[in-house]
Design brief:
The complex is a heterodimer of chains A (391) and B (268). Chain A has 391 residues and is of the alpha+beta class. Chain A is 26% helix and 35% strand. A six-stranded mixed β-sheet of chain A has the order 6-7-8-3-9-10, with helices on both faces. The radius of gyration of chain A is 25 Å and the shape is elongated. Chain A starts with 7 loop residues before the first helix and ends with a strand. In chain B, 82% of the residues lie in helices and 0% in strands. Chain B contains eleven helices and no strands. Chain B is globular, with a radius of gyration of 22 Å. Classes of the chains: A alpha+beta (391), B mainly alpha (268). Bound molecules: adenosine-5'-triphosphate and magnesium ion. Magnesium ion binds next to helix 2 of chain A. Chain B: Its main location: membrane. Chain B: InterPro entries: Bact_Polyamine_Transport, MetI-like, MetI-like_sf. Chain B: Keywords: Cell membrane, Membrane, Transmembrane, Transmembrane helix, Transport. Chain B: One of its GO terms (cellular component) is plasma membrane.
């Protein structure tokens, strides 16, 4: 049921969402058309349909083994699809070997050549060009590429004399010096510690902006995907589950899978009482009615509703309920102070467990709630979202 | 326990040490030490028969090692691309080849060569007036054949630990398959190939058993030593033995260092 979300019609609606993005003429630089990859019994990629736009930063996000790397390797030319096609610049590249494709890859463990210096590594791609490039041109471009990744003084170093972050930048320089149509990155930050990862993420973004090269990143780190990407392609079991901007995926997850994977979400059951042009009146398990977003063509009566923990708030039972807000009676079971916000777990009558994130600023004014306290969870109208049924 | 180990080592190395020691003797007896001199080394190096045998040994060792290295490396590369039952079969064959005793190889090669010569020679002689016989050629072939499996094992071991991502990275950066082999694979496995060459060289240089069967009229150094012993052991023989041993040890140590370096490289 879910593969329909990645189809052309869906891409159109997302084009609409992308109006705030910098480039107006977005052409397609690469495309998967029903691309399927089987490894014996394993279906690593299952009918992938996706257009990659020129100059965008696209991420493949999904849990381990969902086929992200396989999708990337089909672009790089290390795997050829069992069925379907992969196009680069409008040309079918199924039979084109990796060394002829105008794309370059940054490998997870960098795969730098240990028997070469940093400069030799970076110049490797240029040295393969036929007809040969003049030596001085290669040298110049190596110097420039190293400057781009701020490794000017490291040209003559050996690979094993570099730190993880420096090796990563060499790998980056070695790829971008070839001016690829697409830069492929397979979990490039996975081997770095948290602080360095943050730095590299910013550097990578700056680089992408200044070079204007299309970046395709594979990651299973949702924060990384959310903070860096123009668009995210959520994958599961070899399929594309949903494609959209980070905001889009966060605000309008189509399925439980996406709601769970991108940020945290409360998912509660609801009975639809009435529908009106994309909105639905739903009765929760405790009989309280809330107004939630819905697909206009949805006809189900029993649905799952997702709501983000930060969309909910807590008040004492004695406090008045604001307008256009539902109040759900609940009891606090866990409370975790996390600095900028406090995370509450509650048991709501007739609904089950709910998570509420209360910002620090609000708690300072109104005070917090102790474990065991009887409270009202406030659910503002129009913040919940009806999820499509998971397949 | 320590005493026991000491005894084992003494049993292993004492005879060799004594031979080396006696080679510096000034007297005529090969089994006692009378003063110190280098005269037997001088004798050995000035003996034209010794020098000719040495030259034959070096030539045979070099060429057979070259043959073993070329063919062995190619076989190792081909095996790396292989999967499943084919590969298991070839792996087993290579390992068995290393374990077969030299005497079996010697006899088997002799029989094989003689029967091939018997088949080909009448025909060859009629056509060219020239025929095949045992000699340096058959010796190089037999040694090359045997030491090839050593090279296969060493190079295979190195290929196994080679990061496949390096090959992909090279491919990704635009290098053709041959370009990748020349610029990435070969430099990475070169220490193992050189070590294989050196091991093959020492094996051939030291070998007596196989040479005894297939050398024909050729005299290698071990064959020369063996035939002179029958005329009585002199300190000159001790000196030759010591020199051969020193040379072999040096080459083996170099081979070890090369292997260790290639292991260090893959750890980085
Ligand atoms: N060369 C291969 N041979 C056999 N199966 C493979 C091969 N490559 C991938 N697979 C299988 O295909 C599926 C998808 O693998 P893939 O590497 O694309 O996952 P991934 O999303 O990148 O996961 P991870 O986050 O762990 O890297 C997995 O079940 C994997 O075991
Ligand atoms: Mg992967």
């Amino acid at each position: 049921m879910l593969d329909g979300y990645a189809d052309a019609g869906n891409t159109m609606t997302q084009d609409h969402d992308m109006t705030q993005s910098p480039t107006d003429t977005r052409q397609t630089v690469a495309e998967f058309v029903g691309a399927t990859k089987r490894f014996g019994e394993v279906l690593a990629a299952d009918r992938i349909d996706l257009r990659i736009r020129r100059g965008e930063f696209l991420s493949f996000l999904g849990p381990s083994g969902c086929g992200k790397t396989t999708a990337l390797r089909m672009l790089a030319g290390f795997e050829s699809p069992t069925e379907g096609e992969v196009l680069i610049d409008g040309r079918e590249v199924g039979g084109m070997p990796a060394y002829r494709r105008p794309v370059n890859m940054v490998f997870q463990h960098y795969a730098l050549f240990p028997h070469m210096t940093v400069a030799e590594n970076v110049g490797y791609g240029l040295r393969q060009r036929r007809p040969r490039l003049p030596k001085h041109e290669i040298a110049d471009r190596v110097i420039r590429a190293l400057a781009t990744v701020r490794l000017d003084d490291f040209a003559q170093r050996r690979i094993w004399e570099l730190s993880g972050g420096q090796q990563q930048r060499v790998a980056l320089a070695r790829a971008i010096i070839n001016e690829p149509k697409i830069l492929l990155l397979d979990e490039p930050m996975a081997a770095l510690d948290a602080k360095l990862r943050g730095e590299m993420q910013r550097e990578l973004l700056d680089l992408q902006r200044s070079l204007g090269i299309t970046f395709v990143l594979v990651t299973h780190d949702q924060e990384e995907a959310l903070s860096m990407s123009d668009r995210i392609c959520i994958m599961g079991h070899g399929r594309i589950i949903q494609v959209g901007t980070p905001q889009d995926l966060y605000d309008r997850p189509r399925s439980r899978y996406v709601a769970d994977f991108v940020g945290k979400a409360n998912i509660v059951e609801g009975q639809i009482a009435a529908r009106h042009s994309g909105w639905a009146q739903a009765a929760l398990g405790n009989g309280v009615h809330v107004l939630v977003q819905d697909e206009p063509d949805d006809t189900r009566t029993h649905v799952d509703i997702a709501i983000r923990p930060e969309a909910l708030s807590l008040v004492r039972r004695s406090d008045p309920t604001p307008a256009a807000t539902a109040a759900l009676p609940a009891m606090v079971t866990h409370r975790t102070f996390l600095g900028d916000h406090t995370e509450y777990l509650l048991t709501a009558e007739g609904i089950g467990t709910l998570q509420v994130n209360a910002p620090r600023a609000a708690e300072r004014v109104a005070g917090g709630h102790d474990v065991g306290a009887y409270v009202h969870v406030l659910w503002p109208e129009q913040t919940g979202l009806v999820l499509a049924a998971d397949s | 326990m320590r005493l026991y180990a000491l005894a084992v080592y003494a049993f292993l190395y004492l005879p060799i040490g004594i031979i080396a020691l006696f080679s510096f003797s000034a007297g005529r007896s090969a089994s006692s030490m009378q003063g110190f001199s280098l005269q037997w080394y001088g004798r050995a190096l000035n003996n034209p028969f010794v020098m000719e045998a040495l030259w034959t040994s070096v030539r045979v060792a070099f060429l057979s090692a070259l043959l073993a290295t070329l063919v062995g490396t190619m076989a190792a590369l081909a095996l790396t691309g292989m999967r499943g039952r084919m590969r298991a079969t070839f792996d087993l064959l290579v390992q068995i080849a290393v374990m077969i005793p030299g005497i079996v190889i010697g006899i088997a090669t002799l029989i094989a060569l003689v029967s091939v010569f018997g088949l080909v020679n009448p025909w060859l002689e009629a056509a060219t007036g020239w025929k095949l016989s045992l000699g340096a050629g058959s010796l190089i072939g037999a040694h090359g054949l045997f030491t090839m499996s050593l090279v296969v094992l060493l190079v295979r071991g190195r290929m196994e630990t080679l990061d496949p991502a390096l090959i992909e990275a090279s491919n990704d950066l635009g290098a053709t398959p041959f370009g990748t082999f020349r610029q990435v694979t070969l430099p990475q496995i070169l220490p193992a190939i050189l070590a294989g060459f050196l091991l093959a060289f020492t094996f051939s240089f030291d070998d007596f058993i196989i040479a005894f069967f297939v050398a024909g009229a050729e005299t290698t150094l071990p064959i020369y030593v063996f035939s002179s012993i029958r005329r009585g052991v002199t300190p000159e023989i001790n000196a030759i033995g010591t020199m051969v041993m020193a040379a072999s040890l040096t080459v083996l140590i170099v081979a070890q260092l090369l292997l260790r370096r290639s292991q260090a490289q893959q750890r980085r």
